[in-house]
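Open question from group meeting: does this chain pack into something compact, or does most of it stay loose? Before anyone orders reagents, we agreed to write out a predicted structure and look at it together. Recording both the input and the output here so the notebook holds the full record.
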Amino acid sequence: MFIRLAIKSLLDRKGSVLVSLLAMSVSIFVLLGVEHIRHQTKENFSNTVSGVDLIVGARTGSVNLLLYSVFRVGNPTNNIRWDTYKKIASSRKVHWAIPISLGDSHKGYRVLGTSADYFRYFSYGDKRLLEFKEGRAFKDLFDVVLGAEVARKLNYRMGDRLVLAHGMASTSFSLHEDRPFDVVGILSPTGTPVDQTLHVSLAGIEAIHMDWQHGVKQPNSSTSIDDFDGVELQPESITAFMLGLKEKMATFRVQRGINNYKGEPLLAILPGVALSELWQMMGVLEKTLLLVSVLVFLAACLGVSAMLLASIRERRKEIHLLRVIGAPPRFLFFLIQLEAFLITFLGVILGLLLLMGCLLLSRDYLIETFGLHINISIFTSNSAYMIFMVFAASFIVAALPSFVSYLRASKGLD
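Structure tokens returned:
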């Protein structure tokens, strides 16, 4: 009877209740949506690279090394000599090593020079290896493997021919036009910077720079593509390299040895630690988004409270009738609280359904445009805690109209 009375009371004021319900649904949609996307973004961010024990580059800051080696953002302070890379990679403690050479681009997308081990050992997420949507890894000198976003945005297909540019400008006049590359593979989407990268061999990087000095092509060059047949091209230096160790227990010992390497100044970082440092730098934006969503929810709660408070005067006859039939003041107090609970409950249901529907419809768009893999399952311990806090806030905010109704009933004002 108690619940039935609350439902009938809400239906009698369906106009104002509907507005409050919509406001509550939208606020819960924003609150849980921001929290869910924040959590998923952090998870995607942390899973940008996995299975890599150490990233090694020229001595600089750990965040800077992470940015240019993993996220392809910024530039290194210096390169690493090829002999140094070979010496560290051949250590008995090292299981595999992936060289990284940066510096060229194609229509604003970075070109990564590396070895075939990149496709064999590099992983992301929960140690997921790279997969080919089409084609294969590079084998010949002028083969290129495209990331998913590069192929989609630039509309490249298998067998297409493209020209790399010197430097990182989106529009460059320093083109390697005499040595084009053929598309032999397209990677599946990963939601990481891999999608925005073109991958070529280290030998290919050396070949296109054969007649270049200080970023300028030398005039009257006579070297042709056929001249590279049977020639072993080896780089003099690389930008950085990634290491996978045979024993995880040796990670800190190997890191200390690299950082103290006397041949040249090097820095070895733990990817997970550097990712945490980088995420902490973005903490202000993260907290700002959460604060905005909380304020939106509080505004909706105050709207519900104002609606219930205003309804008390409209319900004088109803409250008086309840008092006549013997309803105590606390009955009215809990009746108002129950009405607020029902509005919040329906708001939570509608907000969750709206959020799941939007995530389902926008999932492909988020992957293609922002590289975000958002899980449509929002039922986590974190979301359960947020929903509990929603009901607690609703109870507190509804206490004012409930208490007013209790006072009026106990003093016989109705």
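Observations to bring back to the group:
The longest strand covers residues 94-106.
Residues 329-370 form the longest helix (42 residues).
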